Amino acid sequence: MVACVAIQASQAPLEMRQYDSPTHAVEEAIDLFRTDENLCVLASVLDTGGSEEAWQAQQRHVEGLLRELGQPGLFITLPVQDMVRHLLTEDVIYEDFGVVAGDATHRSERIYAVIHADLPQPARSVAKKAGNLPRPNRSFVGRESEVARLQSLLIDRTLVTVLGPPGVGKSALTLHVARSLVDECEDGAWWFPVDDCASLDELLARMAREPGMIEMPGVATPRRVAEALGPKHALLVLDGGERLRTDVAQLCEHLLQCCPNVTTVVTSCERLEIEGEFIFNVLPLSLGDDQSEMNEYTLLTSDALNLLYERASQSGVLLPMSTSAIEKAMRICRQADGLPMYIELLASALRHTSLEGLERSLLEVGGICTHADGSVATKASEQVFRAGFAMLPEAERALLGRLSLFTTGWDIEAVGAVLGDAGTEVDQLAELHKSLFERSWISYDTDLDRYRMLKPLRAFLIRRQPSSALHQHVRGLATLASTWTAGLEGARSARCTMLLDQHYADFVVALELALEEPKLEQEAGQLFQCLASYWVRRNILEDAMQFASKSLRHGQGLLFARAAMMAGVVALRRRQYSRAAQSFEDARLACSRLSYSVGEAVALCNQAMAMSDSGHIDEALAVYEDGLNFM
Fold it and tell me: For 237-303, what is the HEC assignment?
């Protein structure tokens, strides 16, 4: 190893001087540049091998580096910087000038500029870095912590799968981080979109003929490509790996074996499932604190809100910074569940609609029934999910659609009980569910302790469900509600109470559907009976009265009687005694028509209670005695 200083003056031949240590070489380089600031001076450490031929080869290499720098300045290579770091004075700093490409016999070199108050500061090098990373067409917003974690990971690991559902921003995050690490990759950072390739052969052919990468002649195979990349210090990104998952996994296995200094990153909706793979999960953008006051500072805490405002601005729409506008925008971001691609598409739609119209569209498509004015949100979700959904096996598409009918999430027990009516074996159902989880179409919410899916994905899937699937789902939930309500009196009381709490919103939606569909009258009765018990136990009077009124309008027979009884209980708790007494009388008459003596007895006893509480003691006693006759 020889320390040397290369000097290049304008229109003058290269001059090289040898020194006994890198420190002496740097000191001499500084003195030289102080005497003539028009020089291009480079301090380096060369491996000559003790031969004249090697020394001449190194001279040619250094000459090429100076030619690439192409400007006056004082520079050092990475080995010199590492060797003399502990000897540097406080007033001298070294600025990373990036990687200058080498030639066929010498690898690329990282160059540092020596910066000192007494020295002219060189301009940033314009030499082209190796690689083919695409230039992003939009700014990158938020995700500071994810960027830092992924940067550290790519420095430490050789194979990373950036995992997440469609539209979550895997590619944007990976590209942003890859561009920030270009200077760390001596042989470049390379980007290949897998989803543009019809086969592994096409992907390998693109890699083999990429200028500056390997440019390998002949037939490209995974092994040959990996061996050609073997000596490189590079970053390789395979974007959209789920398109050819098995083939990409095969290629990555060869890269792990042959390329110790190549970091391979695969963006994908599913794991490669190979040894050496490290998973980096990408989540939707942060939404901010639910409880905090909405103002312009909310943009600093919510990446999703920040993205909506920035993309709207790029579309030519300046959203107001008023509290009401920020609140509407935040509700839109919550309906979008923080999904970046979905937010970007919605932001572009603001050119044609208002925040109010956009919010209304999202609410329309987010429910079971959708309407025409939800077209903005419908088109957005179609663009995000359609291609990936079409790639799923038929069985997984069917299960994913049924899972979308759960309103706030689900656990495995609920899936088995509600979806078992589809004729699928429990073990097969569990395997399909596991596959959807591994493909990132569903996630597990540790706070809620159950599985869930993104709201935009749910809206996209609900529109595809036939009425038969909706009917099956309602029947399954009705059976489940009855089972868990019965379990409140047994050993599983605590568990059943928790499950009823978790799935309350599902039962409410199912009851709404059942009341609108004559074919589901029996299920409506089951669900109402279970929910009536829940409403009384939890004292949820508003929901109880709302569904009692709906059931009185739509229901017949026993459902009507139960609804009238529920209306009476609510009125009684609100101390509306006359209304309560009338509702219980309606319930008694309905039970009488059905020859349902127990129901009549309960209705009469409740009616007596209402009369008693209103001060009509004698009438209450007479009604109570009538009730006892039915017991």
Answer: EEECHHHHHHHHHHHHHHHHHHCCCEEEEEEECCCCCCCCCEEEECCCCCCCCCCCCCCCCHHHHCH
Query: For 105-120, what is each residue's pLDDT tens digit?
Result: 555 667 777 776 666 6
- The distance in angstroms from the start CA to the end CA of the chain is 105
Q: What are phi and psi of 167, to 5 degrees?
A: 80, 5
pLDDT tens by residue, 143-167: 888 988 998 888 888 999 999 988 8
Query: What tokens does 3 get?
Result: 């320390």
pLDDT above 50: residue 371: no
Q: What is the pTM of this model?
A: 0.67
Question: In degrees, to the nearest 5, what angle opens at C-alpha 11 toward C-alphas 98 and 130?
Answer: 20
Residues 6 or more apart whose CB falls under 8 angstroms from that of 198 comprise none
Helix (H, G, I), strand (E, B) or coil at 182: helix
Name the 3-class secondary structure at 480: helix
pLDDT at 629 over 50: no
Distances (CA, A) of 458 to 53, 320, 384, 407: 69, 30, 12, 9
C-alpha to C-alpha distances, 523 to 69, 245, 379, 538, 625, nearest whole angstrom: 78, 44, 34, 22, 34
Q: Report CA-CA distances (Å) from 247 to 200, 242, 289, 494, 576.
A: 6, 10, 42, 49, 71
